[in-house]
Design brief:
InterPro entries: Nudix_hydrolase, NUDIX_hydrolase-like_dom_sf, NUDIX_hydrolase_CS, NUDIX_hydrolase_dom. Belongs to the Nudix hydrolase family. The protein is of the alpha/beta class and 171 residues long. 22% of the residues lie in helices and 33% in strands. Strands 3-1-5-4-7 form a 5-stranded mixed β-sheet, with helices on both faces. A hairpin with an 8-residue loop joins strand 4 and strand 5. The termini are far apart.
Amino acid sequence: MEENYIARMRAKVGHEGMIFNSAFGVLWNEAHDAILLEKRGDSKIGYGFPGGFLEYGESPMQAVVREFKEETNLDVEVVRMLGMATHINPKNSWGDAQETISMGFEVKLVEGQTAEKLKADGDETLAVSFVPVNPRPTMFVPAAQNTLERILTVNEENEQPWLREPGKKED
């Protein structure tokens, strides 16, 4: 397997702080009362959105489509941007300083595709399912919980993307 962009960059700079971009997708069920979420391989608690880090030369929209296919086996297309969040972590689970700029997109299944193809990759994603949004599902980290809340409030009220900055009250 080819080494990913982050692993290649970390091999060059070690644990020094770096900025990475990620993209995630939100896929609603037909009734618009549940979101496709994943049980992650790197966390014992809560859910995450399908998504991941951009590779060099890849747009955020291409990344979310690729990550959805890799993690859920579904082909999706981007509908709209939901928002952007930035999170600074002085020491992530690998011991590295990292700032992540994450862009969220609402996605829909590609025409002719059905959710019956849904299948977790078994590595990064241990399980994937549509999870009801009431009551609110528990996300794997506080930043993802805050993002979920924005998706269910701000994005449901209007079409404008949001911006969540570090150091603000909700982080």
